[in-house]
Specification:
- With about 210 residues, this protein is of the alpha+beta class.
- It has 2 domains: about 10-55, no CATH class; about 55-205, Nucleoside Triphosphate Pyrophosphohydrolase.
- About 20% of the residues lie in helices and about 40% in strands.
- The protein contains 4 helices and 10 strands, in the order βββββββαβββααα.
- The chain has helices spanning about 95-110, 160-170, 175-190, 195-205; strands spanning about 20-25, 30-40, 45-55, 55-60, 70-75, 80-85, 90, 110-125, 130-145, 155-160.
- The protein has a 4-stranded mixed sheet with strand order 7-4-9-8, sandwiched between helices. Strands 1-2-3 form a 3-stranded antiparallel sheet, with no helix packed on it.
- A hairpin with a 3-residue loop joins strand 1 and strand 2.
- Helix 2 crosses helix 3 (about 175-190).
- The N and C termini lie far apart (about 50 Å).
């Protein structure tokens, strides 16, 4: 088995994993757990457990002209906590992440966006799973209250300035990885002049 394309400068033989045996341990509509007996690129034998996600993750940071955004609150079973996050969801196999981002923005925050820009792509935990995540910034917002929520979701929505969001991240109140990465990326884009100057100024202003 050959892994994903190596980063620039990485020798090709450093990305090759030879699979000797594989078995499915668990399977459901959302994920599959597989165990692999492999030979690593170093030549050493190893056993890997890999969680294979059937959907990619997508998150959207909606931005108002005054530098504010929206968070969605919900109870998370995996952590046993109430989590404030950006609008997020799963991309069905074969579906467009952009369309999914628009859908989640409408369903969770009741918003539409005339402009949607991808600013992130990353692997959420590349030592144990293959989950991919896409991050978008949404601007030119308008009301679009679809609210087709899952039966297990009881969502709340709140608006706050980007500086307030960054402060909550700094205090450890926001723990969702996609939310943290998107917020920090948008702050970086504002600080480096990579987004419209008026919006960047609104994001960077102290409150």
């Amino acid at each position: 088995m050959t892994g994903p394309t190596a980063p620039a400068g990485a020798p090709a033989d450093e990305t090759h994993w030879d699979i000797k045996n594989a078995r499915t341990v668990y399977d459901n509509p959302w994920l599959r757990l597989r165990e692999y007996q492999v030979t690593a690129p170093t030549g050493a034998a190893a056993t890997y457990g890999l969680v294979q996600f059937k959907k990619a993750a997508v998150g959207v940071l909606p931005l108002e002209p005054d530098g504010s955004t929206y968070l969605v609150g919900q109870a998370r079973f995996a952590t046993g906590t109430y989590s404030w996050e950006l609008p997020e969801g799963g991309v069905e196999p074969g579906s467009d992440p952009v369309a999914t981002a628009h859908r989640e923005l409408a369903e969770e925050a009741g918003l539409g966006a005339r402009v949607l820009q991808q600013v992130l792509f990353f692997h959420t935990s590349n030592s144990v799973c293959d989950e991919r995540a896409y991050g978008y910034v949404a601007t030119e917002l308008y009301p679009n209250p679809v609210f087709e929520r899952d039966a297990v979701e009881l969502l709340a929505v709140r608006r706050l300035h980007m500086q307030e969001l960054l402060a909550e991240i700094d205090r450890g109140l926001i723990t969702d990885s996609l939310t943290i990465m998107l917020a920090l990326k948008v702050f970086h884009l504002a600080a480096t002049g990579a987004i419209a100057s008026a919006l960047a100024e609104a994001i960077l202003q102290c409150r």
